[in-house]
TrEMBL record:
<keyword id="KW-0456">Lyase</keyword>
<feature type="domain" description="3-hydroxyacyl-CoA dehydrogenase C-terminal">
    <location>
        <begin position="476"/>
        <end position="568"/>
    </location>
</feature>
<dbReference type="GO" id="GO:0003857">
    <property type="term" value="F:(3S)-3-hydroxyacyl-CoA dehydrogenase (NAD+) activity"/>
</dbReference>
<protein>
    <submittedName>
        <fullName>3-hydroxyacyl-CoA dehydrogenase</fullName>
    </submittedName>
</protein>
<dbReference type="InterPro" id="IPR029045">
    <property type="entry name" value="ClpP/crotonase-like_dom_sf"/>
</dbReference>
<keyword id="KW-0413">Isomerase</keyword>
<dbReference type="InterPro" id="IPR036291">
    <property type="entry name" value="NAD(P)-bd_dom_sf"/>
</dbReference>
<keyword id="KW-0442">Lipid degradation</keyword>
<dbReference type="GO" id="GO:0016853">
    <property type="term" value="F:isomerase activity"/>
</dbReference>
<keyword id="KW-0560">Oxidoreductase</keyword>
<dbReference type="InterPro" id="IPR006176">
    <property type="entry name" value="3-OHacyl-CoA_DH_NAD-bd"/>
</dbReference>
<feature type="domain" description="3-hydroxyacyl-CoA dehydrogenase NAD binding">
    <location>
        <begin position="296"/>
        <end position="471"/>
    </location>
</feature>
<keyword id="KW-0443">Lipid metabolism</keyword>
<comment type="similarity">
    <text>Belongs to the enoyl-CoA hydratase/isomerase family.</text>
</comment>
<dbReference type="Pfam" id="PF00725">
    <property type="entry name" value="3HCDH"/>
</dbReference>
<dbReference type="GO" id="GO:0070403">
    <property type="term" value="F:NAD+ binding"/>
</dbReference>
<dbReference type="Pfam" id="PF02737">
    <property type="entry name" value="3HCDH_N"/>
</dbReference>
Length: 694
């Protein structure tokens, strides 16, 4: 394949990149650019050179297919290509269209002149992958934009339209017309004595560098304590103001190399790939015909139904909300309106947008109103009997080909599908609370769910701004099933001697926003208690009492009653350690014959996080999850797993599966519930073979 096309016309050589879809700067393209520039310099007919991409992309930066392969660093490297441009004896003009990001922008900064389409998207987003621009971006951008603007762009990774930089030295021209034609005109207009403007020869214009840098250092410390890249970006950019260009470039390289192997960058790059992989389903063609979703029905206007409806209204898709009673309907609609008005007060939407969205919402007490919907999502009480009534009704009224979805968090989607004569159209859409905010959507594929139904739901999830992950049918699906294992591991540690506050603190230091006991107090302990009471009634002998039962018996339901695992002061959510809880736990331990021991924070974290990874591996070997990285996406987007750790499966992989299995066995050896610590067969296999979990 020709990685770039070369053409000479009227004294201008045009080098057009040809590495679809986004002109990633792979080895072939890098080599082709150097060859093109050399050829143009050797041609007597050429006076100037234009570099151009496609309408879609000048270049989106590094070629992701080369990541981790020797080709990514094979000469000519991007730095060499940029030097070749800078040193070209004939002026080089970059014609920027589409996206011009990361290495793509660094390449353009190596040209002597830049002509951009006003709508072209430019930025240095490397920080989002835990690295920094490593081909001179941290040294050249401040020289054309000034320190403050360049710092903001590099530290945030923000992508902006080229028009935002019109009039700055970043672009010589910003045009509303075809940037290639404009760049060729521009190149023709350059006289034979036109200067070869090298950004490296400029000084950074800002005067008050010290104050700006101090501010930036403090800001990144506060905002991204867990990630080293933003602080490294500041230091690299700082060098552009107080070191020579070459010294700055050397520092940039050194910091880049350090970041590239940092655990945080590995985690972020893993997540980047995992998010994309999660939407691809083996055996379903990417071009499968999707079912149109133009009208949505939602059943139940409670906590979930309201939030679910908002997702569609936000995307401009009309919703019919159905309830049993007018009063419930009115309450649900009022909550939706209140949510929108609160968003409006924060200045995120206008009053007009509130009305536009509310106008897309209609309500009904009759199933017959749903006969034309393309998708209906049930969010009624979590009770199989109630679900049965709803799905039989839906089967009766909804048009053929419509998708029938349940938001159940625990019930068997195959059983729900069996209430209809069209199980192939039934699927689980497990939104998380608050459903209009949380990014995760577990898509539960039933035994009979049709491929086009699944593909349509994945596509629809993206349209409403959700991150979809496909799960098979099992108790709790991917996320909640793992949560049970995590909570049991925490309870075991607590029963054996650690205080709830120590467990929370250990997991919060690891990076969870809240430990399990604080989460329990926030969510309310009565919900779990009600479920356990039902289990106990059904099987009194098999029921094993837990500490939380005693808390609930004492009326401690969490924050809403001012007491749970902690004590709360009215009007304040801060947890206070409560001696009453300590006494209650001590009594419980004595009754159960447990002699308490001390735990290190590290052991607490290992027990809880390895419990997640072990259950995750079981979910993977049963085929409930399609890939290990899907499990990470569930945990990162739905359960507050710390992003810089990359998810429980990635974390276990990094800790070494051999070490993880060994630790799990040791936990099992001293446990009163050794079966819970049985290592997943898949984990054992991979620990043996040394192969990564996929
Ligand atoms: N709350 C959560 O955090 C959460 C998270 C994920 C999934 N879910 C699941 O979502 C579903 C709804 O949960 P929720 O928290 O919104 O409950 P909720 O009690 O807040 O709301 C349920 C609503 O359904 C209505 N309803 C009940 N039976 C009905 C029927 N036959 N026809 C029409 N409307 C009916 C009720 O009037 C009520 O307004 C459950 O299956 C639950 O497991 C809940």
């Amino acid at each position: 394949m020709d990685h770039a096309f070369y053409e000479e016309k009227d004294g201008v050589a045009v080098i057009t990149f040809n590495n679809p879809p986004v002109n990633g700067l792979g080895h072939g393209l890098r080599q082709a650019i150097v060859e093109g520039v050399d050829r143009a310099n050797g041609s007597a007919a050429v006076r100037a050179i234009v570099l151009s991409g496609s309408e879609r992309a000048f270049s989106a930066g590094a070629d992701v297919t080369e990541f981790g392969t020797p080709k990514s660093s094979q000469a000519p490297t991007l730095r060499t290509v940029i030097e070749v441009l800078e040193q070209s004896a004939k002026p080089v003009v970059a014609a920027i269209n589409g996206v011009c990001l990361g290495g793509g922008l660094e390449l353009a900064l190596g040209a002597h002149y830049r002509v951009a389409a006003a709508g072209a998207k430019v930025g240095l987003p490397e920080v989002k992958l835990g690295i920094l621009p490593g081909a001179g971006g941290t040294q050249r951008l401040p020289r054309v934009l000034g320190l403050e603007k360049a710092l903001n762009l590099i530290v945030s990774g923000q992508i902006s339209k080229a028009s935002a930089f019109a009039g700055s030295a970043l672009f010589d021209k910003v045009v509303d017309t075809d940037p290639l034609a404009a760049a060729v005109e521009f190149a023709k207009g350059l006289g034979s004595d036109a200067p070869l403007k090298r950004i490296r020869d400029l000084n950074v214009p800002d005067a008050d560098a010290d104050a700006l840098l101090l501010n930036a250092r403090n800001a990144v410390k506060a905002a991204s304590a867990r990630f080293p890249a933003p602080a490294a970006c500041v230091e690299a950019v700082a060098a552009s103001t107080n070191q020579s260009f070459d010294d700055g470039l050397a520092l940039e390289r050194q910091l880049f190399t350090q970041l590239l192997t940092s655990p945080e960058s590995l985690a972020l790059r893993h997540v980047f790939a995992a998010e994309r992989a999660a939407t691809k389903i083996p055996g379903i063609a990417a071009d499968i015909a999707l079912r149109p979703i133009k009208l949505v029905g939602v059943i139940g206007a409670g906590t979930m139904g309201g939030g679910i409806s908002m997702n569609y209204l936000n995307a401009g898709i009309p919703v019919i909300l159905l309830e049993q009673k007018e009063e419930a309907l009115q309450r649900g609609v009022a909550t939706i309106r209140k949510n929108y008005e609160n968003t409006m007060k924060k200045g995120r939407i206008t009053a007009e947008q509130v009305e536009e969205r509310m106008n897309l919402l209609s309500t009904s007490l009759s199933y017959d109103a749903l006969n034309e919907v393309d998708l209906v999502i049930e969010a009624v009480f979590e009770d199989m009997g109630v679900k049965e009534v709803v799905f039989r009704e839906l089967d009766r009224v909804v048009k053929p080909g419509a998708i029938l979805a349940s938001n159940t968090s625990t019930l068997d989607v195959d059983k729900i599908a069996s209430f209809t004569k069209r199980p192939e159209d039934v699927i689980g859409l497990h939104f998380f609370s608050p459903a209009n905010v949380m990014k995760l959507l577990e898509i539960v594929r039933g035994e009979k769910t049709a491929n086009d139904v699944l593909a349509t739901c994945i596509d629809m999830a993206k349209k409403i701004g959700k991150q979809p992950v496909v799960s098979g049918v099992c108790d709790g699906f991917i996320g909640n099933r793992m949560l049970y294992a995590y909570r049991d591991a925490a309870d075991e540690v607590m029963l054996q001697g650690a205080a709830p506050s120590q467990v929370d603190r250990a997991l919060e230091s690891f990076g969870f926003a809240m430990g399990p006991y604080r989460v329990g107090d926030l969510a309310g302990l009565d919900i779990g208690w009600a479920i356990r009471k039902r289990k106990k009634e059904a099987n009194p002998q098999g029921y094993e009492e837990v500490v939380a039962d005693r808390l609930c018996e004492a009326g401690r339901f969490g924050q809403k009653t001012g007491a749970g695992w902690y004590r709360y002061v009215a009007g304040d959510r801060k947890p206070h350690v409560d001696p009453e809880v300590e006494t209650l736990i001590e009594t419980f331990r004595k009754e159960k014959g447990v002699t308490p021991r001390s735990f290190s924070d590290q052991e607490i974290v290992e027990r809880c996080v390895y419990a997640l990874a072990n259950e995750g591996a079981k979910i993977l070997e049963e085929g409930i999850a399609l890939r290990a990285s899907d499990i990470d996406i569930v945990y990162l987007n739905g359960y507050g797993f710390p992003l810089h750790r990359g998810g429980p499966m990635h974390y276990a992989q990094q800790a070494g599966l051999f070490n993880v299995v060994r630790a799990i066995r040791q936990f099992g050896a001293t446990s009163s519930r050794p079966q819970a610590w049985q290592p997943a067969a898949l984990l054992e296999q991979h620990a043996q073979s040394g192969e990564a979990l996929k």
